[in-house]
Amino acid sequence: MAAIQGVQNFAGQSSIRTWLVGILKHKIIDHLRRQSREAPLQTDADEFSLEDLDGLFKSDGHYAEEPANWSSPDAALNEKRFFEALERCMQGLPDKSAKAFMMREVLGMETGEICKELRISSTNCWVLLYRARTALRLCLEKSWFGAPARP
User: Fold this and answer.
1) Could you tell me the residue range of the domain that residue 60 belongs to?
2) What would the mean pLDDT of 67-74 be, rounded to a whole number?
3) Where does the pLDDT of residue 82 fall: very low under 50, low under 70, confident under 90, or very high at 90 and above?
4) Are residues 28 and 54 in the same domain?
5) Statement to judge: residues 10 and 79 lie in one domain
6) Cα–Cα distance between 97 and 129 in angstroms, integer?
7) Quick one: 105 and 75 in the same domain?
8) Is 103 helix (H, G, I), strand (E, B) or coil?
């Protein structure tokens, strides 16, 4: 009881410095919490940048150059050399992009499963898939569809 009376004797007698230090301490804690919640998305250094993809499109959103005519996709899929070209193009992708593409398109996994496996957000997953598809399209146009006919 005496301890409570001692505290009451000092109630309201804190110095301005004490109040300012308390406010500053709480502001610092708030700032650190905000930084941990709003941390920027970590990406691999070898991922594509958005500027790399901007060159593929006009300002109205259409392709700058129309994709090459792939003539008979069914016939190409049946050829062993197509899969070899696809494999070479896949090897040129960043690791996470290649894994996300394989999980989605080959293994048929759902986005949630891919996100859990790769420990990424769904937004990041869709970006990786978009970049992988775009890079594969460009690579296959150069190495397969645009390549001269082989004997």
Assistant:
1) 50-145
2) 69
3) confident
4) no
5) no
6) 6
7) yes
8) helix
Please report which confidence band the pLDDT of residue 151 belongs to, taking 50, 70 and 90 as the band edges: very low
In a domain, 43, yes or no: no
Check whether residue 66 and residue 116 sit in a common domain. yes
pLDDT in tens, 5-48: 554 565 566 778 777 777 878 788 887 777 777 666 555 555 55
Angle among Cα 41, 47, 53 to the nearest 5 degrees reads 105
Q: How many helices (H) and strands (E) does the chain have?
A: 8, 0
Same domain? 54 vs 98: yes
Identify the pLDDT of residue 48: 58
State the total domains in the chain.
2
Residue 44 forms part of a structural domain? no
DSSP state letter for 146: S
User: Is 110 part of a structural domain of the chain?
Assistant: yes
DSSP output for 63-96: BSSPPPP---HHHHHT-HHHHHHHHHHHHTS-HH
Give CA–CA dist 88/61, Å, rounded.
Answer: 29
Rounded distance between C-alpha atoms, residue 66 and residue 137, angstroms:
12
How far lies 130's CA from each of 16, 32, 73, 98, 133, in Å?
57, 34, 20, 11, 5
From 127, 105, 104, 106, select the one nearest 117 (Cα to Cα).
Answer: 104
